[in-house]
Amino acid sequence: RAKAQGRGRYAFFDVELRERVQRHMLLEQELRHAVPRGQLWVAYQPVVELASERIVGAEALLRWTHPEHGAVSPAEFIPLAEESDLINEVGGFMLRTVTREFAELRREHGAELQINANLSPRQLGDPRLHDTVRAALGDAGLPAGSLCLEVTENALMLDATSAVRMLRGMRKLGVFLAIDDFGTGYSSLAQLRRLPLDTLKIDRSFVAELSDSDDVQAIVTSIVAMAHAVGLTVVAEGVETAEQLDILRRIGCDHGQGFYFGKPAPLAEFASLRGIAAP
Ligand code: C2E
Ligand code: MG
Ligand code: MG
Ligand code: MG
């Protein structure tokens, strides 16, 4: 098809591809300095109990603000970190920062909030992860039960056996576990039952179609029913409208997260949200 559109098309692809490769190499170089230069920080997005609209926790999302390139999305730099071995440094920074900041927040506000942090596939495959998590919790003085680690279905496919072993070890520490972006991969709840999961997060692509599609409503209804049947708490991702909230409530989904409740924000901003501070 590209050929039929003539030579200009090739040239266009060429330039675009070269620019992409150049940005990739540049960012990978820059990422090496991001931790020591203090360019990484953590944003917190509220997780809300749908029935009461009370904030029950937050998801920690990594942010990279580069002095020249501005904000670089984690969707772009986490894969770079994964490819280049930087994921251990970046992931370690993330876990230390989140546990320290959240322990502070809980002390100041006396709030029983849970903090969710994401693990990438390579982190999950690293045998040192268990010690990294235990040390981060210990140093911060954060109880293991207030941390929930999110993993995607992909992360489990890399090396399922060692991933399952790692997750069981985490669960023994007392850390909770969530399956992230559920519905985007190919695994079923039946396959996931080998894992010591506590929470299932429904991917935001389903939530986005809830209002317009009866089929999607039916799918989400059955995901929630199945998850509840095996004792999982369900979180809907990407809630943006009051209508989506209504439907999710009716379906019986437990928790929600999304721009409707709050965008990812620096800790101080998260801490000032209504419903965080103890009365
Ligand atoms: P995720 O774990 O599924 O995180 C949710 C993403 O959805 C976040 O994007 C968040 O900003 C976005 N989001 C939240 N509410 C809404 C909404 O109402 N509408 C829309 N359109 N989007 C919403 P973000 O922060 O860009 O992160 C993207 C992905 O990068 C994350 O997806 C996660 O897989 C990865 N990531 C972020 N931080 C980390 C980290 O510290 N470690 C690892 N391994 N991965 C991370
Ligand atoms: Mg997540
Ligand atoms: Mg997610
Ligand atoms: Mg997602």
UniProtKB/TrEMBL annotation:
Signal peptide: none annotated. Residues 24-278 form the EAL domain. It comes from the Bacteria. This is EAL domain-containing protein. It comes from Saccharopolyspora gregorii. The lineage of its organism: Bacteria, Bacillati, Actinomycetota, Actinomycetes, Pseudonocardiales. The chain holds residues 643 to 921 of 921 of the full protein.
